[in-house]
Write a structure and sequence with these properties.
Number of strands: 17
Number of domains: 3
Order of helices and strands: HEEEEEEEEEEEEEEEEE
Structural class: mainly beta
Helix content: 10-25%
Shape: elongated
């Protein structure tokens, strides 16, 4: 009887050791570390990467690098600019270690010139980077209407084509920074610039009630 008890104890000990080794092996190869916050448990070969890096950005595109093991999937990430979520598309829609994806931001209107925080999150990590929005090199007039007061809208293109506010349009808070509200006819911004023979003039605005709010930028 004593021999049987000792055998049972030895058997239990071996079971515990084997179980512990199995758990350590699974942890070492990342199975438990990559369980998502939503409770989903991806298959071992589809574990989510815990390392992402914003490589660069241009216009409305962000280039995201997978710097860890596992994969980065478009349906598992969220993109924020200055803490505001944006819709996006990602190509390719899944990247492995060392690969770079091109993220295209949808409906990116009115970002003012200067620094902005870009943040990308996933269930297993996040990456943040401050990037500066600047006028394109071909731009000869850029008014972001971020002054907030006064009767001058300063040109950020570097060409000095500052605008003069006519008949007191109202400074208001825009979607990003400040903006100008034209609450009635006969109000505008006068700029010392003839329409170009070739090129593009673009103006973005947001309707607010019966008035219009000028959003950055005019170029």
């Amino acid at each position: 009887m004593r021999g049987v008890s000792e055998f049972v104890l030895v058997l239990l000990f071996m079971i515990i050791v084997l179980f512990s080794i199995t758990v350590l092996w699974l942890y070492y190869y990342g199975y438990f570390r990559h369980i998502t916050f939503s409770g989903e448990s991806p298959r071992l070969g589809e574990a989510l990467s815990s390392c992402m890096k914003i490589d660069s950005a241009s216009n409305n595109k962000i280039y995201l690098k997978n710097c860890g093991s596992g994969v980065v999937k478009s349906d598992k990430i969220n993109v924020f600019i200055d803490e505001e979520p944006f819709e996006f598309t990602m190509s390719p829609n899944s990247i492995s270690k060392g690969e770079i994806a091109e993220i295209t931001i949808k409906n990116l209107l009115g970002i003012s010139f200067g620094e902005h925080k870009i943040k990308i999150t996933s269930p297993s990590g996040k990456t943040e980077r401050y990037l500066k929005a600047v006028p394109h090199e071909s731009c000869i007039l850029a008014l972001d209407f971020d002054e907030g007061s006064g009767d001058i809208a300063y040109d950020k293109s570097g060409y000095g084509n500052n605008g003069v506010l006519v008949n007191n349009p109202i400074w208001v808070n825009g979607k990003y920074g400040k903006a100008l509200e034209f609450d009635e006819d006969g109000k505008w911004v006068d700029v010392p610039l003839e329409p170009p023979n070739q090129g593009t003039i673009e103006c973005r605005y947001s309707p607010v009630g019966s008035s219009e709010v000028m959003q950055p930028s005019l170029h």
